[in-house]
Design brief:
single chain, mainly alpha, 13 helices, globular, MetI-like_sf, membrane, transport, Proline/glycine betaine ABC transporter permease, transmembrane helix
Length: 282
């Protein structure tokens, strides 16, 4: 029912026109980004698939053993979990998903850490970026698929784009938090020794904030992984596509296997990043 006293604000029209204008105006940017990023993801996926699965599993297990301080738990879980995925003929999909997660996580960290440093250095920037980050984290993930498709079409690249928007806020927030929590005494000591701003940042603030920043990166990687099912709705390959296929066909078995495979990958990545964080903090 329309309200005659207050006419409807044409927000939908404004957004449609804005997206159309951005798509047309910056097509010269979106097309090269799509082509180059698509080539990189395809190259990464094909490279990973060229590796013998048993060699891949062995390498992951060995690295897990040493990363966790020579404990057998994560290494054993990695062997059993990855063997299960291989046994269920989901290895190719696993590599596609892993490529998507790696790409989205790298871009999120490359973008997020500088913005977090910027926030830590300026209260004005923090006041501006905080509500933007709140908006990015509270907006339903499905909504990000709409501009992603408008800007980049269908495929892996819009999936990466949506994943980055969804996953980057924790890295920004934790980087800002970690730097701001550095002891004022250390900052004053660095100033007393005549360090420059960059020296203070790279030799004092970032090293002291490493543990907090790594916690943010861990959350970013997990959020990027959580987008794999959603990104498959716009053409991203991988385990998420198998989940969507199972849903469309009402294939409970396929959905369960794909879902368990995603969980296994999530646990392995999470434990790896947590173990790296523990080592950084030592």
């Amino acid at each position: 029912m329309s309200n005659t006293l207050l006419p409807m604000i044409p927000v939908k029209t404004w957004v449609d026109n804005s997206v159309e204008w951005i798509t047309d105006t910056f097509e010269f940017v979106f097309d090269p980004v799509k082509n180059n990023l698509d080539s990189f993801i395809e190259f990464l996926s094909e490279t990973l698939q060229m590796i013998n699965p048993w060699v891949f599993i062995a390498v992951i297990a060995i690295v897990a053993f040493f990363v966790t301080g020579k404990r057998i738990g994560l290494a054993a879980f990695s062997i059993v979990g990855l063997w299960f995925i291989l046994n269920q003929e989901m290895w190719e999909q696993l590599m596609d998903t892993f490529s998507l997660v790696i790409t989205a996580s790298l871009i999120s960290v490359i973008v997020g850490v500088p913005f977090g440093i910027w926030m830590a250095k300026s209260n004005i920037v923090q006041a501006i970026l905080t509500p933007i980050l709140d908006f990015m984290q509270t907006m339903p993930a499905f909504v990000y698929l709409i501009p992603a498709v408008a800007f980049f079409g269908i495929g892996m690249v819009p999936g990466v784009f949506a994943s980055v928007i969804f996953a980057v806020p924790p890295t920004v927030r934790f980087t800002n938090l970690g730097i701001r929590q550095v002891s004022t005494e250390l900052i004053e000591a660095a100033d007393a020794f005549g360090t420059t701003g960059l020296q203070k940042l790279f030799k004092v603030q970032l090293p002291m904030a490493k543990k907090t920043i790594m916690a943010g990166i861990n959350q970013t990687v997990m959020l990027a992984l959580s987008m794999v099912v959603i990104a498959s709705m716009i053409g991203a390959e991988g385990l998420g596509k198998e989940v969507i296929t199972a849903l469309q066909r009402n294939d409970v078995g396929l959905g369960f296997v794909a879902g368990v495979s995603i969980v296994i990958l999530a646990i392995v990545i999470d434990r790896f990043t947590q173990s790296l964080n523990s080592q950084k903090g030592e």
